[in-house]
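Collaborator request, handled under Task 6.
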Amino acid sequence: MWIEPQFVNVPGSGDRWGKIDVTDTGDQFASEKTISEGFAQFCSDMGGKSEIQPLKYGHKNVCTSTEGQYLGEFDTKRYESGLAVTFDSRDHRALQQSMHQAEATAQNKREYQSLSSDSLSIQQLQSLIARFQNDDPENLIPHARARLTEMLDERNKEIEQTRALKRKNLENKHIGDQICLFDDSTSMNLPTGIYVFGEQQYRKVNGLTKVVGFVEDISGKKIKIRVSGIVFKSDTGMEQNLDLMTNYKGGTELKVDSIIWDSIYDWDGC
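C-alpha cells returned to the collaborator:
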C-alpha cells in the first residue's frame, strides 16, 4: 500500500506531487534512513532480521524470521518530486495469494459450467471434456459428450457433401475440354552455372508441376487425354516448360503429345 503524506510543492518540479514530504535530496535520504530504522525495529519486534538491498533509485528492505520465513518488506524509490514508499507484510501477501486463488477458482468454475453452452467449437468442447471428465460435480459431461457427437456428425456430413459435390464436378467432363493435373510434390535439378573439374553443378528446386491436356474420349470413369504441355513452377516463382515429366504417379514417364487413359477424378479444370 502507499503511505500517504500531505502533498507539497517540490521546488523545480512545477507540480504538486509527492508521497513523502521532502523538499530536496538530503531530505529524501534522511526520510529513507528514518523509515529503514523504523522497519528494522518493526522486524526485530517480530523476532526477525532485516536485510537492505540497494536499488538503482532507492532501497529494498526484506524482513525474515530466523528460520528464513518471509515476514514483510518495504521499498523506497526516489523521484525528483518526492519519495515513494511501498510496504508489504506476510498478512498482505497471504491476502493477495488468497484473492488470486479465489479468482482462479471462479474462472475454473466458469469454464466448467460453459460445458452446457451450445456456442463452443468442437476443439473447445473436446478440451473441456478432457479437462473435467474426472471432476464433474454438476454432471455436465454426459450432455457435453452428446453435443460433441452431434457436432462431429454434422461436420462429417458437411465433409461428405463437399466431397460428393467435388466428385460430381470432376465427372462433368466432355470431349474437347481442356483439363489440368497438378503435382505439388515435384522437384527439379537446375544448373547453377558453376563448374567443378569441368562438370556442371546442379541445385535441387522444389515446386509444382502442371500437366495440361485435352479430353479425346470418355469411357465410364476413365478419360482419354492428349498431353499438350508440362510446366514446372518453382517455389520462388520461376517457370519452365518441360518436354516430359519423369515421376508421373510414382515413376511413370509422361511426355508432351502423348496419349494416356487416366481416372476422371485426377484431372480438374485449368
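The cover message to the collaborator said: "The longest strand covers residues 199-219. Residues 1-23 have pLDDT under 50 and may be disordered. Please let us know whether this matches your experimental observations."
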